[in-house]
């Protein structure tokens, strides 16, 4: 057996896992998995997040796509699937944000959050409502700091940090996340 044989086999095994994680992140069924699809959830959520704040003012405090990224990343407990889920949902949100929004800002921030949430989902009991509240508030803060840093530092946008607004948004997203995660758990159990 040559030295190339084992290396090639190991590479094929890794690419197979990557393809499986990509299919999970994009909402396709992978063989042997029982994961629900996220395509409809993320598409509907991103559309809602793009248009609901225009009609209802209080939706500007909620980041529904971020909550979906956190839920599916913690439920899958695979860093690669969480990373790809965050990237897909973030780029979808970027594309719906309008002509003045730079593509990739939400994508980068939600990719990091998806990776972190899935890595943390392996270590914590994510079925507890208190844990979900704290994790959602923490990842909302991380997401906002990343978004602010990237938008201001790399892109050069003129953004201003508002502690009261961010704290209210973190609390609102944390509370909504607890109820949304419980509802998504019920749907996951039926499927």
Specify the number of helices: 7
Report strand %.
Answer: under 5%
Give unreliable regions as ranges: 1-26, 28-37
Overall number of domains? 1
User: Over all CA atoms, what is the radius of gyration?
Assistant: 18 Å
Number of strands: 0
**Terminus-to-terminus distance:** 46 Å
Average the pLDDT over all residues and give the rounded result: 79
What is the makeup of the main sheet?
A: none
- Which word captures the global form? globular
Structural class by SSE content:
mainly alpha
Question: Could you state the order of secondary-structure elements as H and E?
Answer: HHHHHHH
Helix content: over 70%
At a glance:
The protein has helices at residues 4-25, 39-55, 64-76, 79-96, 105-123, 129-155, 163-190. With 191 residues, it is an all-alpha fold.
Walkthrough of the structure:
- The termini are far apart.
- This protein has 191 residues and is mainly α.
- The protein has 7 helices and no strands.
- Residues 1-26 and 28-37 have low confidence and may be disordered.
- Helix 2 (39-55) packs antiparallel against helix 3, helix 2 (39-55) runs parallel beside helix 4 (79-96) and helix 3 packs antiparallel against helix 4.
- The protein has one domain.
Please tag this protein with its features.
about 75% helix, disordered N terminus, mainly alpha, 7 helices, about 190 residues
Topology:
Blueprint: H1 4-25, H2 39-55, H3 64-76, H4 79-96, H5 105-123, H6 129-155, H7 163-190
Helix pairs in contact: 1-4, 2-3, 2-4, 3-4, 3-5, 4-5, 5-6, 6-7
């Amino acid at each position: 057996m040559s030295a190339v044989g084992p290396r090639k086999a190991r590479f094929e095994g890794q690419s197979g896992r990557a393809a499986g994680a990509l299919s999970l992140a994009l909402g396709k069924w992978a063989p042997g998995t029982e994961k629900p699809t996220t395509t409809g959830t993320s598409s509907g959520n991103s559309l809602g997040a793009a248009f609901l704040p225009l009609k209802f003012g209080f939706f500007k405090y909620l980041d529904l796509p971020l909550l979906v990224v956190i839920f599916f990343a913690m439920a899958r407990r695979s860093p690669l699937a969480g990373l790809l889920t965050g990237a897909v949902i973030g780029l979808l949100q970027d594309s719906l944000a309008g002509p003045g929004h730079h593509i990739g800002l939400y994508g980068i921030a939600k990719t990091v959050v998806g990776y972190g949430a899935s890595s943390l989902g392996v270590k914590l009991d994510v079925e507890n409502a208190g844990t979900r509240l704290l994790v959602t508030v923490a990842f909302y803060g991380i997401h906002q700091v990343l978004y602010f840093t990237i938008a201001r530092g790399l892109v050069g946008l003129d953004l201003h940090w508002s502690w009261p607004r961010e704290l209210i948004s973190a609390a609102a997203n944390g509370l909504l996340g607890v109820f949304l995660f419980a509802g998504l758990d019920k749907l996951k159990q039926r499927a």
